[in-house]
């Protein structure tokens, strides 16, 4: 270990000012801080600091993404062999999933990080850790059949237009991962709807089983025809869908990690679920069609609802930043998602649009929350003034 | 008995090396110092020249913008050295001490028989006036103001903070005399705050002429700013003053004996101190004489010596001096060693408010904190963290952002007049983006101050 540090220290001068690879200074620094926490000490202000930092924060989100990722990898294989009707061993399903999911993850990270590094060098700031999470979120919210070049284009679009033009991590208005998905959805609609959720490219000798349908539960409900999967299958995720979104169970495992470590906002998660449930119940009351009459809880286990609530809505940068604001933001996401799903079946995946929509409104919510806190403060000051004068 | 003011938000950082309640005396230092940078916003104008003989209480320099406020020597001796920093800023005045202290006599008097003017003049003359500070801005009080109240915090909640009940022991009379002098300075009340969990000294419990407040809860409950906020908050146009317990005792001595006796009791604490204890010293004493050989020597471990607590103190070297407002010297290890993959390791030896480290499962454990910052500065990303450690009706993140963009209107609305950098020290400690929050708060206060003066 010591040798490793020594080696880094030895090549370091090449990347410093006046060195041969001076331009790669920020990239070098990113790798260096990835290897070890530097021996940098506090220079002003508090002499000791809490052990947490951005890397630790982001890495815990990645840990929380592991359950849906692993389940997603298996489910890709499972859905494929279900479509072809072949009976294969568990490991074969996983292997099939790995072969199709890993390239997407690699492309997402490679293209996104490349942009991040270029911007960090050009602007001469440290490479921010934000993309570590975005790079994992993007593959999990798209169908496995998405062409790799499309993944790259969407990622690059999201990082540049979604983040860097605003000043980089921490300054963005929209959630970059969702922006990537929205970009694909509107730029290449045929690749993000219809029979795209299951990898059905057939090898020689394979064929689809009779009457096979790869439609998602949302599409089934929106079209008003086809067989709905059982609640059990939807909750545990044995259904077609984006790579990481199908298993509400796996997502809840991740939510436990986020809530236990205090890194994901419990307020937002809980209020998204509550908002969705409440809107579902309201629609039940006025039900005029099957979708409106569908039990409200089903909204929470269908489509990307759980994934969005746990991983996307909780992005602290694009979410509301005030305590009360988080409740308002969360509830509205839940409400709008269900509304879009049921009332406007042209966009069956309401979650993505609802979160992006509320991302835009989060600063407005915060503005009013701050204003009301300021008013309350003024009243309190006035009251105390009167008391002390009396 | 007044009701208890419960502070719920905040954090007691579990840190090793709390001082044992044993009082030692140190030999008289050869050198003492007064450091003008201790007083924020001060532009010193020299009165003495190098080589001049001074007594304890002799004027050394005054405030260029308020000539009434003078600063005096804590000991008798020869003013030997003027240390300047960047842009010829005066950093230190070093006094070569005599063997015995010779005091300038200001005449003893019972503050209760004096007028407000007389009390103020005595404090100004003796050089004890700078002990009285004001909110807003957390700077030396202006003797021409009349504050709506005066606050004394009788407990320390900062990490390794000196125990005031222990320190005041045997100095109860001087403390009360000091309080009597304070009462002359305001038409309002004098507020004295104690902590319910401490071993309350009779000096505080039986203090006369003050309103006693009981606080409970973690740091920063001992910060006078938090107490002001909960007792009688500062609004635009208000001024309140505050004094530390030890300075109050010095004020008491001034009135009882007529001299500026700058002695005080300080704690020497921290994980790198062999025997953390209390010491009786004179303000401005040389650090190396306080520490002497009382340090843990470990190969490859550098140490950081701090005058003050680990959250707000001043980084001083061994040959530097104890600062004016401090009653604590903390010694902690420097964190100048890289740690492989430390951002993902479990890290059983590190403390964090977040539950991403195992520390939260070991609430009994105290940690050997070092000075590693662990990351470069990042923009705001995580939200809702500062709110956990700031027990004030103030939105910390929004306030800091308004300071960053110099939005004076917003700063006022969000309560800039109530805050001081020290109240935000814990926010800076817990910040995952490693933003220099105390510095931002100070900048905000400076902007407001220059705008309205």
Topology:
The complex is a heterodimer of chains A (390) and B (453).
Chain A: H1 2-11, H2 25-35, E1 36-37, H3 54-84, H4 90-123, H5 130-140, H6 148-163, H7 176-187, H8 189-192, H9 217-223, H10 231-236, H11 248-261, H12 266-285, H13 290-293, H14 297-301, H15 305-312, H16 323-343, H17 350-389
Helix pairs in contact in A: 3-4, 3-5, 3-11, 4-5, 4-6, 5-7, 6-7, 7-17, 11-15, 12-15, 12-16, 15-17, 16-17
Chain B: E1 4-6, E2 23-25, E3 31-34, E4 44-46, E5 53-54, E6 59-63, E7 66-72, E8 77-84, E9 90-97, H1 116-126, E10 133-135, E11 139-140, E12 149-153, H2 164-167, H3 172-185, E13 189-195, H4 202-205, E14 211-216, H5 224-231, E15 240-243, H6 245-257, E16 263-269, E17 277-282, H7 287-291, E18 303-307, E19 314-316, E20 328-333, E21 339-340, H8 396-404, H9 408-413, H10 425-430, H11 437-451
Parallel strand pairs in B: 1-14, 2-17, 12-13, 12-15, 13-14, 16-20
Antiparallel strand pairs in B: 3-9, 4-6, 5-8, 6-7, 8-9, 10-11, 10-15, 16-17, 18-19, 18-20
Helix pairs in contact in B: 3-6
Mean pLDDT of chain A: 90
Summarize the biggest pleated sheet of chain A: none
Question: Count of DSSP helices of chain B?
Answer: 11
Helix content of chain A: 55-70%
Q: Fraction of residues of chain B in helices?
A: 10-25%
What's the helix-strand series of chain A? HHEHHHHHHHHHHHHHHH
Low-confidence stretches of chain A: none
* Widest β-sheet, arrangement of strands of chain B: 1-14-13-12-15-10-11
- The mean pLDDT of chain B is 93
Which percent range describes the beta-strand content of chain A? under 5%
Structural class of chain A: mainly alpha
Would you report the number of β strands of chain B?
21
Descriptive report:
The complex is a heterodimer of chains A (about 400) and B (about 450). Chain A contains 17 helices and one strand. With about 400 residues, chain A is mainly alpha-helical. The model of chain A has no long low-confidence stretch (mean pLDDT about 90). With about 450 residues, chain B is of the alpha/beta class. Helices cover about 20% and strands about 20% of the residues of chain B. Chain B has helices at about 115-125, 165, 170-185, 200-205, 225-230, 245-255, 285-290, 395-405, 410-415, 425-430, 435-450; strands at about 5, 25, 30-35, 45, 55, 60-65, 65-70, 75-85, 90-95, 135, 140, 150-155, 190-195, 210-215, 240-245, 265-270, 275-280, 305, 315, 330-335, 340. In chain B, helix 3 (about 170-185) packs across helix 6. The model of chain B has no long low-confidence stretch (mean pLDDT about 95). Chains A and B meet through strand 1, helix 3 and helix 17 of A and strand 21, helix 10 and helix 11 of B.
